[in-house]
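Researcher: Sequence recovery benchmark, item below. Answer with residues only.
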């Protein structure tokens, strides 16, 4: 996190809350979520305590407890936000004609959604903490939701290869960060563009039955 963001978080005297220097541009819960998620990914969920998160934020544990009493509450809130965002995308998709162009547009919109830093980081956290996610009700909902996504992209009569290509189009979007993260010559937009090109290629190959 940038130093100015770290310095911004502080306790409001007498109210036991966390705020930022510019409350209009920085939602407090989102601020906590972002810092905690970065720590969970970098240091590991099990090795990160609420006390350490509070210290990173520059506040007391009591101030953090006001918003999130446990680490699980932070993770649950992040998953629920992602579920809501993908649900909205699915509602749009299921209201459209079931065509290849609709599926391609879905992949494009999914890519845009995933490029929001919080969503990308949630997927990274999800993939690295399967055991934890399996214990959370929100984690099961997220898995069920991905099955819904795959169900929309795939046709029952398609071959296994075609269905796998469609699934891999989504996983390609997830994997873009990992595969290309060491390419210093690529900007974030370059990485996103390349990832989407591959995802679209997979969808077109699946549609062609090749």
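Model:
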């Amino acid at each position: 996190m940038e130093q100015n963001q770290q310095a911004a978080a502080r306790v409001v005297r007498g109210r036991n809350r966390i705020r930022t220097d510019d409350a209009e541009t920085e939602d407090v819960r989102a601020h906590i979520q972002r810092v905690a998620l970065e720590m969970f990914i970098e240091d590991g969920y099990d090795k990160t305590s609420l006390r350490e998160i509070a210290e990173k934020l520059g506040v007391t544990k009591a101030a953090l407890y006001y918003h999130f009493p446990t680490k699980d509450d932070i993770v649950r809130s992040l998953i629920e936000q992602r579920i809501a965002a993908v649900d909205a995308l699915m509602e749009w998709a299921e209201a459209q004609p079931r065509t290849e162009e609709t599926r391609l547009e879905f992949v494009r919109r999914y890519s845009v959604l995933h490029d929001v830093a919080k969503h990308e980081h949630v997927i990274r956290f999800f993939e690295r903490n399967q055991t934890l996610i399996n214990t959370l009700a929100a984690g099961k909902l997220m898995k069920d939701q991905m099955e819904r996504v795959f169900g929309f992209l795939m046709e029952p009569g398609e071959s296994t290869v075609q269905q796998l290509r469609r699934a891999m189009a989504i996983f390609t979007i997830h994997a873009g960060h990992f595969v290309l993260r060491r390419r210093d010559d690529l900007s974030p937009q370059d990485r996103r563009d390349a990832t989407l090109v591959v995802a679209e290629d997979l969808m077109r190959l699946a549609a062609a039955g090749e």
